[in-house]
Amino acid sequence: MHNTTHDRPVSTTCTAVFAPLRERIVREVSGSAMLADLLEKLNGMQEACERPADFKIHFDEFVARATDYCDVVQPFLPELMRLLPIDSKQQVPCQPRLTETHGEPDLTWDVA
User: What is the pTM of this model?
Assistant: First the structure.
């Protein structure tokens, strides 16, 4: 028997991942407009938890908007990705990668 998200109710999983993520965003995101936008996108994801296709859309919007705060959301991505439809889990978003620009390394982020 595997202990996956599918073994427990989706609403329990949502509460477990969204509450601490919301708290961390409130604590670490500066700027009221950015904070409001991230929380709106987070709420959209949470509301779509039981609809995987809709969740994927909201997840992509959230990750795209949170690129400047990857250090904040990165610890929560594995749990959020468990809520994605199976065919959407191939690429981990918001993974740091080093790229070279004019000979100097630069930190950039992959976003799904």
Answer: 0.69
